[in-house]
Predict the 3D structure of the following.
Amino acid sequence: MSKLISDINQLLIENKCFVAFKNPQQQNVFLFNNLQFSLKAVSILDIQSNWNGFLFMPFDTNQNGFFFDFQDTKSNSFIPFKTSKVTSQIDASSYLKAIIDLKKLMITEDVDKLVFSRNIQINALSHNQLSTLFNALCLKYANAFVYIVHLPNQDTWIGATPETLIQINSGVAKTMALAGTQLAQNVSPDLITWETKEIEEQQFVTDYILEKLLSENAANIIIGKPYTKLAANLAHICTEISFVPPKNIGSLLQALHPTPAVCGVPKLKAFELIAKLENYDREFYTGFLGQISPNQISLFVNLRCLKSDSRNTYIYTGGGITRKSIPELEWNETERKADTLLSVINQL
């Protein structure tokens, strides 16, 4: 891995656009530098299943994302992504008050679930720290999709996400409904029990995905039984869903994203409240990313991630709020999720 760290470090020093990633349960790391792709601006409906490259899409589907085209290494037609002014970290007391106010608003707006997030601001990470962090995440989180992306606007994004948005292989697609969170250190998944709030929260996601798959004319839909899925030091409720996908992958992605696991129910109302209440632009946090090739598609929800620029680093974290949410427990959940990255950063 030392050469990988050195190569990534040099690309960061030279401010070259690149992407590197590791798929879940695999050891191979793929690195593509600026000479190995062209970077293009794409909307969600542009996405085609016969592409060959890497997608990096934002939370807001009204904004374009990036496609690293591995087949085209000469032309660049990207439009620089407009970065937002990131607000300062919200403290615990402000967060607790926001959850109380949000629960009242959810009743008046008839919203069943809303994912409320925040950012944690820390000192900027050096080039060497960023490359070392990516390497450390690859080693520590074997079951996660781990990535580092450096964009033309000089932002670097790093993450280790446990959540699949969609995988398609040999004409069969798989997705998952992942929600509910609790600490799970040195505990067997079979011994973990779940409260009604988490079970209902996860069911919102499952129901939503099923509804959208039916609306997109997906065939042979098979819904598995919910089980406890471990991710780093956390446990989540997971339901795996398989189906035969429709031909229009862009339309399917637009229907699925953002799921209630990162947005809420109903989606449009939840999205509007998020834009109004979070007081910052999520950008690529809770968007989706991954590799597309003519034979296989592997896309993941961009969770447990950070953005770093020359001045600061921002770690993103959040949780699903329902009318049964206890504010203090929601705050604790965001702290535990942020620790996925912070625990590694603190050892650099």
Observations:
- The longest helix spans residues 196-215.
